[in-house]
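Task: encode each sequence below as structure tokens.

Item 1
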Amino acid sequence: MESCLCPFRRRCRIACETSALSVTIYRFVSEPKQARRYFVSGIVQGVGFRYFAHRAAERFHLSGYTKNLPDGRVEVYAIGTAEHLVKLRSVLERGPWGASVGDVKEEDAEIDPNYADDFSITY
């Protein structure tokens, strides 16, 4: 820490913060991805649930899809880190205004490369 990165050329916390940032970014990039499938039941169709799930998935940097099922449930398939998948489930359990989530069933899934790049709403 002989040379400081701040404009005042004195020792400060910026060098330490910069190295901590590098460690954080490395940890984020290196976390393994996994896939989960969520089946959300209740009053979840006709209330914007797929759009709600899409916004949540984008906020958590997840890829995958969401779609309505013929039996009245909504399916959400998501790929991401374990931490972000847990956060997504929490949001799905709450649902958007106007929805009434009865249950969220979760199961492991294989990573499908067709959905690995972005999150889409499937019709």
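Item 2
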Amino acid sequence: MKLENARYMDEWIRVPLCGTGDKLYHYTTAEGARGIVQDKKFMATKSDFLNDKLEFQYALEVMEKLVQTYLVNETFAERFFTLVKEEIRRLGIISIEDGEDGPSDRMSFYVVAFSKLQNNALLWAEFTEFHGYCLEFSYEKLVEGFEERAFLHGTVIYDEKEQMTCLLEGLLSCIHGLVREGRTDLDGFFEENAEVSEESLQALAEDMAMVCSVYAMFFKKSFFEGEQEYRFVFTPLEKGGIEEQPKFRLFWQMFLPYILVEYGGGGKALPLESVMLGAKNNSDIATRGMKHFLKVQGLDIPVLLSDIPLRY
């Protein structure tokens, strides 16, 4: 559900942003916590290796439902969706499955996932098996610290009706913009006997493909809603025309590609405000060890222990 007075990514892309004073939480392992606190580097996972490997393609499913719902002429609807899909494939932002060859890999996006929830059982289980750490950050300072590189950020949208509304508003904005440019045949786009030139339809498909591709980064299926995710999406850096190559971490005997995103170029302090230990990480040594680690890093912040009851 959209919030009143919410701030959005921009006029066309209605992805909600956090507000002044908001906190974000990052669940991670001991190794991940050390890298963030000691080196100020976040591990950003390649988009098609997230917990839902096809989530960047999910927005295309929603787009197809939107076209089928609002365009009553089935032949016209199919033609428009085909053009949008072709343009999305050309852009390469969304990896569309292409038979045995797998998804297109011409553009790479890497995600650092945060949550709006602290001490959440689902997130403890998914990311740390209750042994890890939950790091609390200032939202505003996080954004400031990443400003030296290109990225997008926003609240993940899980509700399909809201996703449809976002894409419909984007479609209407694209149509209105093109009509103002002189493509007046698009005024009848939603009519059953619409007569839209191929040139105008192609122009609309190109604009809508970009809108859909950006939303793809922030749409997830509803059964992930319990994560309440707020994500930062990065592209690899380029040096001399060569794209930054990923590193690989091992997780359950799998190789997962990632890049390291450094926080705070120019010496900004890490905006870490507290650290919570998972419920299984409840020994006195674990707590004292984290406190000592933070002290050595020059951080005087609370160290908390999750109080979630567990059955062993």
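Check on item 2: Residues 98-104 have pLDDT under 50 and may be disordered. The chain has eight helices and twelve strands.
End of task.
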